[in-house]
Amino acid sequence: MYQYDTHDQAMVDARVAEFSDQVARRLSGALAEDQFRPLRLKNGLYLQLHAYMLRVAVPYGTLNARQMRMLGDIADKYDRGYGHFTTRQNIQYNWIKLEDAPAILADLASVGMHAIQTSGNCIRNTTADHFAGAAADEVADPRPYAELLRQWSTFHPEFDYLPRKFKVAIIGSDVDRAAMKLHDIGIQVVTNAAGEEGLRIHVGGGMGRTPMIAPVIRDWLSPLQMVSYLEACLRVYNRYGRRDNKYKARIKILVHEIGAEEYRRQVEQEFAHILTLGLEPPPAELARIKAQFADPAFDRAAPVAIDLSDPDFALWVDQNVHAHKVQGYGIVTISLKPTGGIPGDASADQIRLMADLARDFSFDELRVTHAQNIVLPHVKRTDLHAIWQRLDEAGLATPNLDLIGDIIACPGLDYCSLANARSIPLAQKISARFADVERQRDLGELKLKISGCINACGHHHAGHIGILGVDRKGVENYQLLFGGSEGADTSLGSIIGPGFSEDGIVDAIERATQVYVAQRTDGERFLDTYRRIGTAPFKDAIYG
Amino acid sequence: MAETLIRLRDDSASTAPVVAFADLSDTANALAVRLMPGDDARALLPLLGQLELVEVAFPGFNDGRGYSAASILRESGYTGELRAVGDVLVDQISHYHRVGFDAFAPDQPITRAAIDTAIATWPEVYQRTVDGRPAIWALRHG
Ligand code: HEM
Ligand code: SF4
Q1: Is residue B1 part of a domain?
Q2: Are A170 and A178 within 8 A, CB to CB?
């Protein structure tokens, strides 16, 4: 994976110095809160209901064991012994003191990490397929492009005060594991008949209160023009995106209002101008980055067959280990969704254990997934049993990947100042109701996603089952959506009817799963059945 | 001492009256113009040869359209004074400088020393812009 050189290190060190000075000026009163706010947000520091929250960037979700260990140490040293992995492939700490923020950033910088642009109206941390470089279905590793984007977007002077936040996601497989089309810009690395790599650029997707699926704006772009093209996309947005209403300020609204055709025309015009300026890094830079993402030294003779006689182990392998591009290896997903637990939470000890496992068994590499789990991307199948045992002892071997227990939930009313309703306790209740793993497996792939308000941090629009917390005359209320997906078949869910109380919605979900079990045909997922039979049978069962 | 106009240029400041962009059509030979955030900087391109001063207004520091306006003018060869005017704060100075501003007229006075420190915030830069600094990729590959 990518290693900082002295240039990269100089930049994060400069950031620590700058932010330490800003915090000092805030604490002395020289900076007013409204002036400090955008500055701290660009360092991922939010003021939440009870404390400051710090969001740390994990660029394209990839990190090494030393970095992971540091995340655990920070949880111990500055938080309450926990970290929270999020849908943005980042980690958040919920109990941070402003005075400690500079020291935390310095600790992060010591392992080549930072909180740069994890918030604010700027280009955010780029997210990517969490199986990048490992998946059997991959066409090309998207991470070299993501790293090029990281560098281009870091402290970009023209795009730090955009109309609104800006999120880019990139994938290199037809299987979309990054909700690519639901981002401001979604990029897919593709190849043509001659085997050359190209980029397909989608612009104008998003969730929030106006969910939209991004249209294709450029079907094929030379990878050696990516920076110039994105520069053009951003400039058009910076100049013409709406600033009169923050709910209409995302690029999806601009693309929707002027139309994809017109947006494309403006971008092409700007692109032609930008190509004359020589802003593109040379091919040698992309080659330098690509070399750092070269495959680790896989043992191509590693055996495929392993002893699966322990039924619990076999269950976990079946559910949580994916096909690797190299025979004899597997991709392990560590579920951070224990029955009744808080989705995405991990203790400092658990974080350090995962770091150790990555060091010993996965070529020193981990991934954070947007579904709030952790991946060991390159594990020899013969090591799986040893890993599983250590995970199991630490409460990290729940075999529920992509099942109804693998819930995505935003922080909700327990932490978030914008929330209408609690997300975490509801996730815990649903997880407890469906605790039986055999029952979960019988229900098959079922992606359940919860947001505590319309901002949709929990991706509820994209859930096979989505839950949206609303405020009904001062009482927490939950709306139920069906039919969303964030995969290659991206679709937006729709609300099926009146909302529910916290207990009511758990019952409603249970009834929906009963309809599915009764109506499904062979091999159909919940989502497929819903798409085939429509809302009516579900409504009848739920509202009866 | 804190000043209300800081110029990083050696020539003397334009004394021409500053014409609002909206009034340009009445003043064909204007030497100094003020752009508001919504004004199209590209409409100034035919005048670049005659302009001595372009003021770019930042009514609020968080409206970033002026950064693109400045970049466009410099990319198109404008060499006169480019002045950021209004809610211009020290924490944005390094970015202003990178997109081509060479004069600042902040509502709240800033010292020249603070401006110089701000411009030196980044030891290196990742992007090539109109400020001419070599991007890190250029340092890496010569
Ligand atoms: C806890 C405090 C949080 C606040 C105040 C907050 C705020 C917001 C707001 C206002 C939006 C809507 C943006 C728009 O529609 O223009 C949004 C969307 C979103 N946020 Fe958060 N958020 C928080 C936590 C999180 C967490 C924990 C994550 C995961 C890392 C997250 C990820 C997202 C995602 C994925 C979206 C939807 C995609 C999009 O349209 O941008 N947020 N957030
Ligand atoms: S969806 Fe709403 S409640 Fe949940 S974290 Fe985002 S802003 Fe907060």
Answers
A1: no
A2: yes
Gyration radius (Cα) of chain A, Å: 23
Predicted confidence at residue A255, as pLDDT, reads 98
Question: HSE on the CB side for A407, CA within 13 Å?
Answer: 32
The ipTM of this complex is 0.97
Structure tokens at A365: 């590499």
Tell me, what CATH number does B13's domain have? 3.40.50
**CA–CA distance, A525 with A521 (Å, rounded to integer):** 9
Place of tokens 């040293």: A77
Q: Which pLDDT belongs to residue A47?
A: 85
pLDDT mean over A116-122: 91
A125 lines ligand 1 (CB under 6 A): no
Domain A134-290 falls in which CATH fold? Answer: Sulfite Reductase Hemoprotein; domain 1 (3.30.413)
> Which of the listed residues A96, A455, A492 should we mutate to test ligand 1's pocket, taking the one with most ligand atoms within 8 A of CB?
A455
Burial of A171 (C-beta count, 10 Å sphere; 0-12/13-18/19+): buried
Considering only the top CATH level, what class is A311-393? alpha beta
pLDDT band at residue A42 under the 50/70/90 scheme: confident
DSSP state letter for B110: E
A452 lines ligand 2 (CB under 6 A): yes
| A6-109 has CATH 3.90.480.20 classification | yes
Both structure tokens of A212: 């939209």
Give the strand order in the sheet containing A216-221: A127-128, A168-171, A185-191, A197-203, A216-221
Ligand 1 centre distance from Cα of residue A28 (Å): 31
